[in-house]
What we know:
By secondary structure, the protein is of the alpha/beta class.
Amino acid sequence: MRFIDKVVIVTGSARGIGQAIALGFGKEGASVVIADILEQQGNDTARMVTEAGGQGLFVWVDVSNKVAVDGMLQRTLEVFGTIDVLVNNAGICPFHDFLSMPEDLWDQVLAVNLKGNFLCSQAVANVMVARGIHGRIISIGSISSIVGGAQQTHYCASKAGINMLIASMAISLGPYGITCNAVLPGPIATDINREDLTPEKREYFRQRTPIKGIGDPEDLIGPVLFFASDAAAYCSGSRLVVDGGILVNFQ
């Protein structure tokens, strides 16, 4: 159990990709904070983490709000005493055409996806630096940070911002022994986007993805745990694409 003495925060982990990652850490013995706005599902996931072999704790947080982020971190320290790994997973993607996109929708997506990454990373990094913790910060990006999407202007921009945030953080935090990396998934089937994945879209991805069509949340566990492990101690500022090969096969 590689993470039996480690404390991990996973934002947006009440369901979907974040939940899979949290359970992956739980199976490796970690203490995992389920940081989310979904209380019932968050508590359920925390219980699942404990049943898997770790220690699960749900903490409510709105990652776009600094006071809430500080409160989440304080609760983590009160219960577990430290923080070793942060996984920035919380994100939203309400599809909308660029020409008619309202300003408040743009602001909301950037606030959660990009500002949330900044606030959580800054808060956790300050604790790590103050305590001399050689920690790990991992952000879940997207291949949409590399290729655009007609209904995802706000989302693509936010994910591209994460790439540069991680790169800059890697430079700033490297001298303190803190690594910063990003995992960039391709199309992943979750409860949030399952309705949007029509048979036509599934066929589109099936034809263009060399390994398989649409990925599963569990496909992200290995890459994230790698960046969190000692095996990735010399990796920082990296972006690992996890997309079944679709990015290199766009036609």
